[in-house]
Write a structure and sequence with these properties.
heterodimer; A: mainly alpha; globular; B: alpha/beta; Rossmann fold; 6-stranded mixed β-sheet
């Protein structure tokens, strides 16, 4: 009983943060009328999709004790690749599959380099950050890749922008979040991810094939990043090699605000999703307050520090 | 002893609802070595943290050389003359020995290091310890544990040291280094430094200490002159019960050969080892730290690659192996290093206990959490692991209880061949006795056990056969009856023939 209460408190931390941010933006006169409406939350949810899908993959990586800095570049590269395939007349589903495959391929390269060369993920993915971004620009000839139209463009909007329906991207995110949470909690693969992040030596000692596991984690996460690239393409309606610069930091921040530990072994999908929402609510609210973007950046930066500090306090009390 | 260096009266300390110290009193004379003895969780570390200024006491008084002693923090305690050497040494491994000795007390003029004066002070400190030969320019990380300890003690000598607290100083030292440390302690004692010596090794306490105090459940339950005390009496005080058969022996017939190591070698340390292990046999590996005992176990378990030789499990030779295959063959390995290799400290008891066989708790990669938890809960009950329940994080348990869970992992798997590396290191007497009991039961049930231990009474008490390693070679393998403590030491130091 005491344990469930404690884990509720642990999961509740980010949730309380989310409610706090929402309440704070509901009070001022500038935002009071529109902020707490269904339509605004529809916007917030839609704005969360890309970061949230990225955070699903990133949660796996961070729980396994790793990090991936190449996400923003992967998203740009897959969106360029997707736009070029649409130009060639590919249908939406093959484009989707191809983009997920490109993302997974980048992840496979990351994972193989990290596990095979025994180098730290920070260095390897810092490298692929540049490689993927450069490749995207090369492939796109340093321009945006435009196409006539594609059903993909409709996956981040709804037919009636003021209706009650949510765009496909939001539902996909929700579905994948549930699946990933189950994967991490209820399967042997998921528990091995936690074991690897908690203590790699123990994982090896207990017969877990750590090399193969790392490759699998980065590849699967890469597939998520490819999917995030798809929704980026859907939102922009063009392939842009300069898009999503620094997005990996937003994604990492979501996971950390959600209670994951950068040293591995700790983290939840629910937390990461709430973390992504907190970031989106902060952006949305700041815009409605009419605050300049630099002010938003400062606020989000401070929120990350405060969130992790509160987490430290909570853990300190547990011990 | 009329004058008293340190006097503690009725010290109390609580953490929330837990009363870590109920009432502890202590008196130490100048130049006295005082052993603090107690099981894990008896309150030793809390007491030491209060003495060294890391915690404040809730009630009670402390006097140092007749003056009230109220350290605000460890630095303040140091300035007042009380220094602590932790089991896990506190050195900056990338700085030189000299920089480490002077850390926080550098000789400086206007912010610039005074090199000449620094060197003199560091040398003077080492000279007091009888270790003038230590190379002050070498990086601390390049020294052995024993030498690193000397560096820490030298650091404490920079101030006018009155009381030195040493927490398990010999836990990772070899016999020879332990003797050198005792010589150093004797020098300090002669200079009038009082020493508080904490150790699980009672024989050691008897060798070095003048007096002792036994703590149990946060209270002083006994103290006296070391020379007049029997170890049995002290153990009874510690545990509150008579420990009769510390090393139980049940008659167990030996069966077929289950493990054969033929001229195995691995980099960097293991040069040559040959042994045979039978079902129902407890095989002890003695030797100094760094003699290659751990390396031999790791090679058998496939954690290190073989450079030469062959290892046969149940008659099947197999050179390209990893831990996964070994678990599959029923071989289990208990690491000597619980925190860094053995356990995942921020995961639950359940996950730690079942990590080698998660797939067995469900089908097709799914885990039935309730079954997994029930299995863990059963072992927690059977081995009397002190915890809330199997869902508790293992990092919150004491060392002895962590070790029981680490062992339960092998039992649950279940292993037929147990490779146990220093299974009783750093755990309390009660848990030790339980582990001896368990090993004896395993042998009786026809399992085979290889156990590495640096603690000779344990090796002689537990094992049927003992092999001693020296400089990477397994030199002598004989039945236990043909060994004595001194013979093991001679073989370990290479002075047997």
């Amino acid at each position: 009983m005491k344990d469930t209460f404690k884990s509720m408190l642990a999961k509740g931390g980010p949730f309380i943060g989310l409610i706090l941010v929402i309440v704070l933006f509901s009070i001022p006169g500038e935002t009071r009328e529109f902020f707490l409406t269904y339509n605004n939350f529809k916007i917030i949810f839609t704005q969360t999709v890309i970061v949230a899908i990225g955070a699903l993959g990133m949660t796996m990586i961070i729980v396994s004790g790793g990090i991936d800095l190449s996400v923003g570049s992967s998203i740009a590269l897959t969106s360029v690749a997707g736009a070029q395939l649409i130009q060639r007349g590919w249908a939406p589903i093959p484009v989707l599959l191809a983009m997920v495959a490109v993302g997974a391929l980048i992840g496979l390269l990351n994972g193989t380099a990290i596990a095979g060369l025994r180098m730290t993920p920070f260095i390897i993915t810092l490298g692929t950050l540049g490689v993927a971004r450069g490749s995207a620009k090369w492939m796109a000839d340093n321009q945006t890749v435009n196409y006539e139209s594609s059903p993909i463009n409709g996956w981040m909007t709804t037919a009636d922008p003021f209706g009650h329906a949510l765009p496909a991207g939001v539902w996909v995110t929700l579905g994948l979040a549930v699946l990933t949470a189950i994967l991490l909690r209820k399967t042997v693969f998921g528990r091995h991810v936690f074991a690897l992040g908690s203590n790699e030596a123990t994982a090896r000692l207990c017969g877990i094939a750590t090399t193969r596991l790392k490759v699998a984690i980065y590849t699967l996460a890469g597939a998520f990043f490819g999917l995030a690239g798809l929704f980026q393409l859907s939102r922009l309606r063009q392939g842009d090699p300069t898009v999503a610069v620094g997005l990996e930091l937003d994604i990492i921040a979501s996971v950390i605000i959600g209670g994951a530990s950068l040293s591995g072994g700790v983290g939840t999908i629910l937390g990461s999703m709430i973390g992504a929402l907190i970031m989106a609510v902060l952006r949305n609210g700041s815009q409605q307050m009419g605050w300049p973007t630099y002010f938003q950046e400062i606020i989000i930066g401070l929120v990350i520090i405060v969130a992790v500090f509160l987490d430290r306090l909570r853990q300190g009390r547990q011990a | 002893m009329s004058d008293v260096r340190l006097r503690l009266t009725a010290i109390q300390k609580s953490f929330g609802a837990t009363r870590a110290l109920k009432s502890v009193s202590l008196e130490i004379a100048p130049g006295e070595v005082h052993a603090i003895i107690g099981e894990n969780g008896a309150g030793k570390s809390t007491l030491m943290k209060i003495l060294s200024g890391a915690y404040g006491a809730d009630a009670g008084t402390m006097n140092l050389s007749g003056l009230p002693y109220l350290p605000e923090n460890p630095h303040d305690a140091r300035l007042k003359g009380v220094a602590m050497i932790y089991q896990e040494l506190n050195l900056a491994l990338h700085l030189s020995a000299q920089e480490n000795i002077l850390l926080g007390a550098e000789s400086a003029r206007a912010g610039w290091i005074d090199r000449k004066n620094s060197r003199e002070r560091a040398q003077a400190a080492l000279a007091q310890l009888g270790h003038e030969g230590l190379d002050l320019d070498r990086l601390a990380g390049d020294f052995s544990i024993a030498e690193q300890q000397i560096i820490e003690i030298a650091r404490a000598l920079l101030i006018s040291l009155q009381v030195l607290i040493m927490d398990e100083p010999t836990s990772s030292l070899t016999q020879a280094d332990t003797e050198k440390l005792f010589a150093t302690i004797t020098r300090l004692r002669a200079r009038g430094v009082s020493i508080i010596y904490i150790s699980h090794f009672l024989e050691e306490c008897r060798l070095i200490a003048d007096r002792y105090t036994v703590l149990k459940d946060g209270e002083t339950v006994g103290s006296g002159e070391m020379s007049g005390a029997s170890l049995d009496h002290i153990v009874t005080l510690m545990t509150g019960r008579e420990v009769k058969e510390l090393y139980p022996r049940t008659a167990h017939p030996m069966g077929a050969v289950v493990l054969e190591v033929k001229a195995a070698a691995s980099k960097p340390r293991l040069r040559q080892a040959t042994l045979q292990l039978r079902a129902g046999e407890v095989f002890g590996l003695g030797g100094l730290i760094g003699a290659g005992r751990t390396d031999l176990l790791r090679a058998i378990f496939g954690l290190d690659d073989l450079a030469a030789g062959e290892i046969c499990i149940l008659g099947a030779p197999n050179r390209a192996v990893g831990p996964k295959n070994r678990w599959g063959q029923g071989v289990g390995f208990l690491s000597e290093n619980r925190k860094e290799e053995g356990l995942m400290l921020n995961q639950t008891i359940t996950d730690n206990l079942t990590l080698t066989k998660l797939g067995a708790f469900g089908r097709m990669g799914w885990i039935n959490g309730a079954r997994q938890e029930a299995v863990a809960q059963r072992w927690v009950g059977e081995l009397r692991v002190k915890c809330r329940d199997a869902g508790q994080l293992i990092g919150e348990l004491s060392g002895g209880n962590q070790q029981k869970v680490a062992l339960a992992r092998l039992l649950e798997h279940p292993a037929r061949i147990f490779l146990l590396d220093e299974p009783t290191r750093g755990i309390d007497v009660g848990s030790k006795a339980q582990i001896y009991q368990l090993v004896s039961e395993l042998a009786a049930a026809g399992k085979a056990v290889v156990v590495v231990s640096s603690y000779l009474p344990e090796l002689l008490g537990m094992c049927d056969t003992i092999g001693v390693m020296c400089r990477g070679e397994l030199t002598a393998v004989r039945p236990r009856a043909e060994w004595s403590e001194s013979e093991i030491m001679r073989a370990a130091t290479g002075s047997a023939d």
